[in-house]
Amino acid sequence: QRPAAVQAVETARAELAAIPDLAPESGEDPTKAAEAAVAAAEAAHRAAQRAETQAEGDFERANLAEGRRAQLTTQLGAETEKHSDLTRLAQDFGKDGLQAYELDAALPEINVIANSLLHECSGPRFTVELTTTRLSSDGKRVLEGLDVRVLDTEHGRDALAETYSGGECVIVGEAIALALTTLACRRAGVSNPVLVRDESGAALDPANGRAWIAMLRLAAQQIGCSRVLFVAHNPELQALADSVLLVQDGTVTMQAGLG
Q1: Which of 231, 226, 253, 251 is nearest to 241 (CA)?
Q2: pTM of whole model > 0.85?
Q3: Each residue of 161-205: pLDDT tens digit?
Q4: Which of 21, 46, 69, 127 would be a feasible disulfide site paired with 151, CB 3.0-4.6 Å?
């Protein structure tokens, strides 16, 4: 029995040695340590709850922001499409769109009216042609623009209008301006307008001055003007008017013209 008892005692001692010592080394009360651990756990739990609440709020705000982003994306798409349409309309109705087409369509009539005024009032020397396209200097591209070419049969010259002399440019330019006025009045259905020119014939010599007055009379007849008013300091031009309003020293007097 003794050996068995010795063995039992050794086994008990081994089991006792295997059990950890729960007593704190510093002698601290294990209850207080447990309570502190519980308090720390509870604080951590509360912090986790706050973090969860904040995360839920952030998630809700993110959902709202996502919905707003989708709404703005749709709105942006609609506005972008609208802007594209308006840009296209601006191009179509701009100087390179409908205006260019209108001008292209009107040029033949403008050329006919301008040349009729020139030939009937100034003789067959000048013939004008307005064009909206020309070849580039290398001949590889078609350029948009508005060129006025003038054929001078007297000198055998065909060149741009701006290369002619001042008086020549005036008579040609007046023919084109009166052609544009005639066409505009026709298309707008204007009746009995007043045609006004402010020193347009100042650079003309006597021969071209007479042609210019004849051109004004013919244009007025074609347009159906009630009267033509022109300003001139040249006595020879004044004499071609039906009547003259002389403005001098703040007074206006009427004189009979020779026209």
Answers
A1: 231
A2: no
A3: 999 988 889 999 999 999 999 999 988 988 899 999 988 887 788
A4: 127
